[in-house]
Write a structure and sequence with these properties.
Blueprint (H helix, E strand, L loop, with lengths): L9 H4 L2 E3 L2 E3 L3 E6 L12 H12 L4 E8 L2 H4 L14 H12 L4 E7 L20 E3 L3 E2 L5 E4 L2 H21 L3 E6 L4 H6 L14 H19 L5 E6 L10 H11 L5 E5 L7 H4 L11 H8 L6 E4 L5 H9 L5 E4 L1 H5 L3 H6 L14 H8 L28 E5 L3 H12 L3 E6 L18 H16 L3 E4 L5 H7 L3 E4 L3 E3 L12 E3 L10 E5 L3 H12 L3 E6 L12 H11 L3 E4 L1 E6 L3 E6 L4 E5 L2 E4 L3 E3 L1 H7 L5 E4 L9 H13 L2
Parallel strand pairs: 3-4, 3-13, 4-5, 5-9, 6-8, 9-10, 10-11, 11-12, 12-13, 14-15, 14-17, 15-16, 17-28, 19-26, 20-21, 20-26, 21-22
Antiparallel strand pairs: 1-2, 7-8, 18-27, 23-24, 24-25
Length: about 650
Amino acid sequence: MQTSFERKFPHISSPLRLGNVYLRNRIVSGPMSFPDIPEWGALTAPSSAFYELRAKGGAAAVTISECVVHPATGKSHSVHIDLAVPGNMRSFALAANAIRRHGAVASLQLSHGGMYGGADSVDKSHLSGSVRYGPSPRTLPTGASVTEMPVELIREITEGFAKYAGLAKTAGFNMLMIHAGHGWLLHQFLSPLYNLRTDSYGGSVEGRTRFLSEVLDAVREAVGPDFPIELRISGSDFAEGGYDVSGAIEFVKLIEDKIQLLHVSAGIFEGGFAIQHPSMFHNRGCNVELAAEIKKHVNVPVATVGGISDPAMMEEIIASGKADVIVMARALLADHELPLKVCANRDDEIVPCFRCFTCHAERMTTGIRRCAVNPIVGREDENRHVPPSPSPKKVLVAGGGPGGLMAALTAARRGHQVVLCEKEQELGGALRSEAGVSFKKDLHRLPERYAHLARMHGADIRLGVEVTPELVAAEKPDVLICAVGAEPMVAQIPGIDSSHVVLGTEVSGVQGDRVAVIGGGLVGCEMGLHLSMEGRQVTIIEMMPELAKDANPRHRPILLGKLEELKVKSLTGSRAVRITEDGVYCVDSSGSETFIEANSVVCATGMSPRRAAVDALRDCAPVFMEVGDCVSPGNVVDATSRGYYAALNV
């Protein structure tokens, strides 16, 4: 007779003691900032709800980011949370309690921006007249001058770390993270790339580690002997003149007895965003080998971070001894219940993060948090629970793209009788074109995951069935949600109907080895990159002066960098005017003609909403709603958000 639950991922599900606390499993919610920060630096109710949701979802620890310990010199963003401001203690205590009451450990990240104080991309008004301090004098790529930090200020900042650590313990946090990676102040002192000092805080590895060592000693004095201290480092600078993993091992061995958990990330501030936050073009777990190598040389538990979300990979990392803890951030935005699902053998229910950077880009451009696949993100205080419907109805959803699937899932979770019909034999809508694109495989998995969850809640999903007025009359729904999507716009170019021309939604049909992509927006650029990765010679033709202007500002520079790396050619400021068997003729604004040799052509010139299909269904049910690309061609985040809220309105 079986007397215990057999866990599919026993190593991930096992507890770990750190000082005087226990992690209930090996999955930790890494430091993430919530942008709803008032000028006085309190944690707002929406902030608390944001962090609480990760605790409720089963994370072993939840880290609030990031509290600057010396605001006069160390603010890396225009606003920061600040525990020392009179009156703010209550908000921090409420947030820590919100995390702890769900069984998670509440941790607070303490940091200082050093010479990158004021590097925020949204608002630099606070930098007027400010002095930037770093380990050594230098000029930043922006032209800003850096002043060598005097020893008196080093000691003042050290005292600041201790002061904020003591306040955090008083507020109810049961763990602290000291940030010494990613190019912030303590990392600047550790790295020979930045630290050129000749006094006791520079030179040898002992000298470069001195500041960090003193900070850790001061924090320990403030919090007591058993209080767990985490340290986040970059396992390698990945920059000429910086340290590599062997250098990281040298300084970690000097301070390992002062900490309870070592987080191994990677990269520096300058040019390091995609290293610090691995993109869809990076292998998952790209930092694991750094953690594994460091772990061979230290006795302290080691945490690894970097695009990890697959439970099988996580289990192998812990079981093989490469790391002791998995830290994740974006994966817990996409699915805050990922830890619960892993520990309960429900890994087939996990909604994948496909690393699109919507979460980062929205904060950068609009100052809010959003997630492409989880519409609750940024509205956690409003959506702690999907409310059951007081009067269940029959809901018919037309279209199985992300918007329609999210509407069906949410309506089914609320107790409605849901039928979703997709006229094709495969779900996904516009996402079907992502099939076979290696860096989009997580996105391609999304429709079936939504469908699986919807079926679990009772939704009836029918493939190869088109919603027509006759079908609506037969089904008699109370509510019809129209998510019929969009169709490719075909450029009116002579030769566009040739057999070697395919649409951007049918890129798997490309046969030639020399490809011209007409349309250099996000879709065209990603398709061009994919074809180049397959070994084809690709040229992208775009009417605008720049490529991928519709891509978000975090994803775009990484995408353009990959295109350059793979030597994908581009012709901007030009329009295709004629397609022949041998290639494409283009004309620029001056009328000059250029010929692009190609034996295959991809047309990626945009999408047009299927308004005729929408209008045909408009008066077929008492309540009619439209979601997704049939309203206006957009992206996954817009489709899922509209689908979610449409279902809440039923």
